[in-house]
Amino acid sequence: MSIPELEPLDQAAEPIVIHVPPFDDAAPAAGVAIVPDTPSTPKRGPKRKRKRGPTPSAPPASLPALATVPLALPKTSTADAPAPTVDVEPKRASSLDALRGLFLVSMTFGFTIASDHLPLWMYHRQFPPSAGDVPANVAGISWRDLTYVSFLFTMATALPLTLSRRIDRGEPELGIVFAAVKRYWMLFVYGLLLAHANTYFIGYTQTGRVLSLVGFGIMALVFTRRRKDWDAERFAVARRVGWGALVLFLALSPLAYGKTFTIGRMDDVIADLAFASCVGSLLWYFTRERTELRLAALAGVVALYFGAHGDGWIQSWWYASPFPSVFTPSQLDLLVVVIPGTIAGDLVRRWMNAPEEPGSAAAAWTPARLRAIAVLSAIITPIFTVGMYTRAVQGTTEVVLALLAVGIGLTWKPRTSLDRLVRSVFLWGALWLTIGLFLEPAEGGIRKVPETLSYFFSVTGTTSLLLVTMTVVIEGLRKRRWVHALIDVGQNPLLGYVVFTLLLNPLLELVPPFRGVLQSSPGLSIVRSLIEAGLVVLAVRYVTHKRVFWRT
Predict the structure, then answer these.
(1) For 516, which DSSP code?
(2) Closest listed residue to residue 50, CA positions, set 257, 295, 334
(3) R_g of the chain, CA atoms, integer Å
(4) In degrees, to the nearest 5, what angle opens at C-alpha 273 toward C-alphas 272 and 276?
(5) Cα(291)–Cα(427) distance, integer angstroms
(6) Quick one: three-class SS letters along 65-99?
(7) Is the model's pLDDT at 32 over the cut of 50?
(8) 8 Å CB contact between 50 and 42
(9) Confidence class for position 325, pLDDT limits 50, 70, 90
(10) For the whole model, what pTM was predicted?
(11) Strand partners, 35
(12) What is the pLDDT of residue 22?
């Protein structure tokens, strides 16, 4: 940190406030208060079930004269000089964790559904029990179809937060690019191992269930991040063992069910997340100060999408790839979700870095107004989903647009950084949802399989509005305890995604008497699913409280 040259005065001086980027770990010099500165699974395809400031202490060794040279402003008496203030708690994006946790729980609940005798709205809209492996030719979406886009959106929203920390640490450009490629590789391996251990892909047999448990153990060795109190050498040995076991598992385990390793046996949801994470990271990094360039890229993707629906070279290129499990040009349509996610991430990052005066309210809006914003932002999602499922498209569009107009009025005249965050995310969410609603008739109705632009834009919009709800509840109303369980689950997404499919379900299914428990009627099947989803939440919360995280 460079110190500006100031001429010392003869009398005591009050502290000068030097603005530095947030989360700076350097200890402040005596008489200098540092405050933050404001910065300038299911398958895809044919069947996709998809950190006080310390009290001013001795100056750093690199600045020995700073403690003896008063940095002064206009004359003031010593008695009037305020004590240095450095108690600045870094903000956390807990609302994003909670939103991610919500959809992980929703996704897990969907995984637990094994009965074929539930109401049709309990299944993916294009995959009712009678559809088999061929998607039904029916428009609409159900609640289960929200999770894929919503989970992708939360991942994209976290990218600016993660990458900006690397930039603040001074990482070179090449290092950031390498980190994006490395994360792609780790997610790709995660999806490959998952598909070779999940009974959904390898068969519902006793052998398959044992392989699922083995695969879960290998994942724990490879993806668990070392805690600071763990022995580094032992951890490194365990990690090497895990990688060796992973190679052997992929090569040999298919022989146990009469097949061989193939890169095509891949969890498509994770494959899409890997691609979106890499491309989204690079796109955000090189356009982080130019949102308009990202919007231009979004427009380009939309043009390519529609061009691929007509005969010609765009269509041939869009769907062709020598390595479809690694990359297909049609995956570029995921940027329709990723780019809005990075814009939301920029808004969250700006709020996290914005200083607040000590003792100021997080939001200037009244609690009643905040509650109204939270409720309105939340109810739009079920209204939209039910309307699209029942195909009451015009009425649903009119109701949703009216609610969005009310929400714009409720978020009028923001005064604090939190108010501005809520209003900005709401406006962007309203934009995406409106585009999605207007596009709904363009492709014969909204669908998840095959995906339509209306599906991508609309669910991106509803997820943005749910982010508003979580932000208001946690930061505005200070009701973090209401969603604490979701925050814990959302902080450990890689673990939460496989606890049921690779651990809990195989354990239960290995014991034959457990297979039919609470399965004799549709109502009991729902009870069993709720219990299993609850057990997953408890397990992930326990591991998270132990500060054990799975990371790429």
Answers:
(1) T
(2) 334
(3) 26
(4) 85
(5) 15
(6) CCCCCCCCCCCCCCCCCCCCCCCCCCCCCHHHHHH
(7) no
(8) yes
(9) confident
(10) 0.82
(11) 19
(12) 42
